[in-house]
Each structure stands twice: as C-alpha cells, then as structure tokens.
C-alpha cells in the first residue's frame, strides 16, 4: 500500500534563516514513528511545516496519495492532525468543550459523543473530569486533553510534539501507554521526542534530526544497536 506521508527535499526556516535542509522521509499508514534528536535542531519546525503553520520554502509533501493542500485547515480536513507543543488549550473552557474544538474539521452532523467515547476510553481520567475547567487540571491531564482534542479530529496521521514535555516520569509512562494503545487500533502516529529511551518501546521507526536534517533512520532494533549514534547526537 502507498505511504501515508511522503516528504521529499523539504526546506523551511524563519525569515531568511534556514532550519530544515532537504528533509526526505516517508511514513506508512499505521504505527508509531518518532523524530528524535537534540533541542533546537528543527523537530518542531518540521511538524509545523507539515501541518502548514510554517511555510515550506521548497520540496514536496504528499499525503494520502495526493499533493498536500496549502492551508492549515485544508490539511486538517485531509487528515493531518497536529498536537502542538505546550498543549495550547482553552484554559477557561471545560475538558469536553476543549475536546469538542478538535472536531471542527469533521463533516456536518458528526456525533461528538462518538469522539468523546473514544477519548474517554483511552483516558478514563478525563471522563471523571469532563466538566472541569482545564485551568484546574494537572499537567498530565492537560496533556491528555491535548492528545484527546487531536483524536477528536479523526485524522489519518496524529502528529504529537513532545508529549513528555514537563511531565513526571510516571505520567510520561501513562501518556505513552495510551499512545501504544491508540496505535494498536491501527492509528498512524508521529511523535517528536528528544529522549529516545522514553519512546524506544512505543515507536517502531526512528528519525534522528540534527542540524535540520535526518542524520540517521532505523527501527527499534537498529536503535538499540546504535549506542554510538545515540551518544554522538544525544549525549548518552
Ligand atoms: N518563531 C521562530 N522564529 C525564529 N527562529 C525560530 C522560531 N522557532 C524556532 N526557531 C529556531 O529554529 C531552530 C529549530 O527550532 P525547533 O523548535 O524546530 O527545534 P526542536 O528540535 O523542535 O527543539 P525544541 O524541542 O527545543 O523545540 C532553532 O534554532 C530555533 O531557535
């Protein structure tokens, strides 16, 4: 089957400063892939360029067998869903209201209850807090709302920027367990994660970004056998 996402020679940056240099990769229609690598080397910029929040300078992106549409909204409607770093939730709104916002690109008549049920199945803790304002949730619960809001879009690829950011190790485990469970239903997920040891047992393919390029790509076994690569780029 054709790849879900195919990126060729993608370049992007800020102002006149280039960040991404000829990034090429592809993703299949299922499973968890991870972009790993040190901070400040372009992982977030890549996700933002894929979702259309940043303009691509050159290169091609194909999604679901067709050239990707231009606007952020059209990309979301095509099924490319971006869960940004830092959650970016509506703090004065409840859990359910935040989740409902994620379904904005769904066709008219979509029954929100179906989406809520999927999210609450994955994150039962959110079901208990469904009427609570997001401002009163813990950091881990907010992260769950952010991922749940992305799920509500019903996309074909869920791109999640650093789901572990700022969370305690035990909460990181809970979030990654949920992503594992979501992937087992056949979802395609692309995660940005600085620390490969956190994602090693969740993802099945890894792209190591350094200096705005992929310096190494491999599966879980290759990653485990590449301690030299990890030490060189990630310091341990
Ligand atoms: N809005 C912006 N304006 C100008 N430069 C930016 C902007 N956002 C990011 N950059 C620069 O682009 C480069 C790549 O940043 P990016 O956030 O993509 O890296 P990253 O690998 O995701 O790191 P982190 O995990 O810390 O976000 C960095 O040099 C950063 O300073």
Automatic annotation (TrEMBL):
Return the protein name: Branched-chain amino acid transport system ATP-binding protein
Q: Which PANTHER family match?
A: HIGH-AFFINITY BRANCHED-CHAIN AMINO ACID TRANSPORT ATP-BINDING PROTEIN LIVF (PTHR43820:SF4)
Instruction: Provide the family line.
Output: Belongs to the ABC transporter superfamily.
Where does the UniProt annotation place the signal sequence? none
User: Oxidoreductase: is it a keyword of this entry?
Assistant: no
Q: What are the entry keywords?
A: Amino-acid transport, ATP-binding, Nucleotide-binding, Transport
InterPro entries assigned: AAA+_ATPase, ABC_transporter-like_ATP-bd, ABC_transporter-like_CS, BCAA_Transport_ATP-bd_LivF, P-loop_NTPase
Q: Which residues form the ABC transporter domain?
A: 5-236
Q: Mind giving the lineage of the organism this protein is from?
A: Bacteria, Pseudomonadati, Pseudomonadota, Alphaproteobacteria, Rhodobacterales
Q: Name one GO molecular function term.
A: branched-chain amino acid transmembrane transporter activity
What Pfam families does the database record attribute to this sequence?
ABC_tran (PF00005)
Q: A GO biological process this protein is involved in?
A: L-amino acid transport
Enumerate the CDD domains for this protein: ABC_TM1139_LivF_branched
């Amino acid at each position: 089957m054709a790849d879900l996402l195919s990126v060729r020679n993608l370049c992007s940056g800020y102002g006149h400063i280039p960040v991404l240099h000829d990034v090429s990769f592809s993703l299949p229609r299922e499973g968890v892939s991870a972009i790993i690598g040190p901070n400040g080397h372009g992982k977030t910029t890549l996700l933002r360029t894929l979702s259309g929040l940043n303009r691509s300078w050159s290169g091609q992106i194909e999604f679901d067998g067709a050239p990707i549409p231009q606007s952020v909204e059209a990309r979301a409607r095509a099924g490319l869903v971006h869960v940004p770093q830092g959650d970016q939730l509506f703090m004065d709104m409840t859990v359910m209201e935040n989740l409902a916002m994620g379904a904005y690109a769904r066709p008219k008549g979509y029954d929100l209850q179906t989406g809520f049920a999927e999210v609450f199945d994955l994150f039962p803790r959110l079901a208990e807090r469904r009427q609570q304002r997001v401002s009163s949730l813990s950091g881990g619960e907010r992260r769950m709302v952010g991922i749940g809001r992305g799920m509500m879009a019903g996309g074909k690829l869920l791109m999640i920027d650093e789901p572990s950011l700022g969370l305690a190790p035990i909460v990181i485990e809970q979030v990654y367990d949920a992503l594992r469970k979501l992937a087992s239903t056949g979802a395609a997920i692309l995660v940005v994660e600085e620390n490969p040891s956190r994602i090693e047992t969740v993802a099945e393919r890894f792209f190591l970004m350094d200096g705005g390029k992929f310096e190494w790509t491999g599966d879980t076994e290759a990653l485990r056998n590449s301690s030299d690569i990890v030490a060189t780029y990630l310091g341990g």
